[in-house]
Amino acid sequence: MSEPVGVGQRNSGVFRISVRTAAIMLAFTLIFTALMAGTYKATAPMVAASALAEKLRLIGEVLPATMHDNDLMADAITLPPGKVLGLDDDTRLWRARRNGVPVALVFETATANGYAGRIGLIVAVGADGRLLAARVTTHKETPGLGDYIDPKKDRNKARPWITQFSNLGFETVPRDKWRVKKDGGRFDQMSGATISARAVTNASGRALAWAVENRERLFALPPDARFEEKEL
Amino acid sequence: MSIYKDIAWNGLWKQNSILAQLLGLCPLLAVSSTMVNAVSLGLATILVMMLANFAISALRALIPYEIRIPVFVLIIAALVTVVDLAFNAFLHDMYLVLGIFIPLIVTNCIVLARVEAFAAKNGLRAATFDGLMMGVGFVWVIALLGGVREFIGQGTLFSGIEMIFPKLSGIQILPADYPGFLIAMLPPGAFFVLGLLIAGRNWLDARANQRLREKRLHEQLPPANSLPA
Question: What number is the ipTM of this complex?
Answer without folding.
Answer: 0.74
